[in-house]
Specification:
Layout: H1 16-29, E1 36-40, H2 44-54, E2 60-64, H3 74-78, E3 84-89, H4 95-103, E4 109-114, H5 121-124, H6 126-139
Parallel strand pairs: 1-2, 2-3, 3-4
Helix pairs in contact: 1-2
Main location: cytoplasm
Subcellular location: Cytoplasm
Organism: Vidua chalybeata (Village indigobird)
Amino acid sequence: IPGYGDSPPVEMALTAQGRRAFLDHVFQQLGMQRPVLISPSMSGRFALPFLMAHGDRLAGFVPIAPVGTKDYTAEQYRGVQTPTLILYGDRDTGLAPQALQNLQHLPKHRVAVLSGAGHACYLDKPEDFHRALLGFLRQLK
């Protein structure tokens, strides 16, 4: 993610609008049409603004305890029609409950909880993670 960890700062990543534009640019450069956007943790700062503005351009959305969910209202979430798999580990007692509380307002969501997994549930329980993700992908149009 630009500007996080050891990556160099990117000026456009300073605002939600800039982060949305950055993600849009990445999709365009890769020639991606209607991708499924998987958004763990800090990537929520990029994925959520994109979802709110361009959710109709996504085939699906898979938030994994992303940050930034409290930046939007229940009404804003209810306006998004993107099929969503809310995925988290049951040992993530920090971000996961807050993210679930906000994301559950997405009208086309379902929830998968990985037992015995923490915040990085895809690392803790990779088989369970892939099973849930593949099940969701199979049911998308």
